Amino acid sequence: MTSSPSPRPPRPNPAFRRLRGQRSPSEFAAAVRRAAREIGERVSCDARYIGRVEAGEIRCPNYAYERVFLHMFPDHTLADLGFAPRSAVRGRGARATAPAPPTYDTQETYETHASYDEHTYDDQNHEESDVRRRAFMTGGTATVAAVSLGPFGLLSDDPATAADRPVHRAGSSEASALEDAVRSIRVLDDRHGADGLYRRAAAPLRTAYSLLDAGATRQKVTDRLYAGAGELAISVGWLAHDSGRFDDARSHYAEALATSRMCGDAALEAHAFCNTAFLARDAGRPREAVRAAQAAQRAARPLGSHRLLSLLALREAGGWAGLADRAGCERALVRAQAFFGRGSSDADPEWMTFFGEAELEGLEAQCWSTLGDWTRAARHALRATQLLDPHFTRNTALFTAELADDLARGGHPDEAAAAGLRVLALLEEVQSSRIRTMLAGTARVLLPHRRATGVSAFLDRHTSLPRTHVRTASATVPAPAKASGRS
What we know:
Elements: H1 14-20, H2 25-38, H3 47-55, H4 63-72, H5 86-89, H6 91-97, H7 118-137, H8 141-153, H9 159-164, H10 172-192, H11 198-214, H12 219-242, H13 246-263, H14 266-282, H15 286-300, H16 306-322, H17 326-341, H18 357-370, H19 374-387, H20 393-409, H21 413-426, H22 433-446, H23 455-463
Helix pairs in contact: 2-3, 2-4, 7-8, 8-10, 8-11, 10-12, 11-12, 12-13, 12-14, 13-14, 14-15, 14-16, 15-16, 16-17, 16-18, 17-18, 18-19, 18-20, 19-20, 20-21, 20-22, 21-23, 22-23
């Protein structure tokens, strides 16, 4: 839903920026989501929304956000938060000076981030969110993809037909739609996992590269298209990766890496190498994982993001663990902790919204698990589940599955069964072959302990789980027993 922007230039909102303080936009957005849950509101606030508020693009929040912000800052009014009076941005007076409504964001819940006629869209958004959720839960992949990714990718049509459509020279609207498609994929994956999304998400990727071939109106648009196409290739690659299609994932990551080299985008190069390292570890190539993670760190150093360097050190640690090099793994983990301790910054990439203390703990748990230190692994996995933002439903299931497996292998079958049952409940919302594979491994470990408290109930429920075909990179490479969070 887009329209011509208002002729009135936005004025930055320094008051709101001061309230954010030292927190990054992503961290502040997470705090907004937590505050919303405290009062029963539903908002999908992200770093982009916080940036738009601070830039003055959102002159007055919709009613849901207003309630959340006033809950967070009870001694403030909307004016204290730097917003304009609602009467100034809606109604006849406002429409006389700004005849066209501003651009609406395309997030998973299609929240009304704009200030024009908010109440009407709020009611519609909650209904659309429920429709999207039901479509996904009933296996309506085409439906959910068309609704969630439609602004960019012709997804209401057959993907092959969409790919054959002629593409004209792109402008800023096409670049924005491409960026929104990437965000939509990430939000859906955070909540539901990759299975069912992958094939539909490939259509906007083909369209993105068709736009690059057709050229753009300005160099700035060209740069955005290259970055957007590269990030979309990584997102589609991750969907393939998480659903066990390792060869497809490797191809998409290589495509993103080539794109980064063509346009000289160090941030995109670091992201592509990051995911390549992740895939190599899962595919049983730990030495390649170490080298790709080190290449990612070389690309990332000039970017100024300590959080990114922390994640890349964790990717390297995972590779060393796969090589059974405990000393190398520990050195990389120490670097990861040190970089993480330096805090977040505005230089942190947008795609790293998933990476917080919970992810740090979860990835360290996987390293100790790979090294066979089940007690230490379980301690970190438990910490990860306790710290994780509930917004990341998929990762909640992932790290709980990690915890169940570590407990089972560490000789605590009753606790492992309890954690496994929690994962089974989450699989009603999450579709991820990787998590199912992890849980199947845990079930095999628990088979000899059927008489332990809760184990029989877990095994029976696991047996009744609908069967899905888990794809692998080749016949000789098993689906990964461990997994880590999305990138």
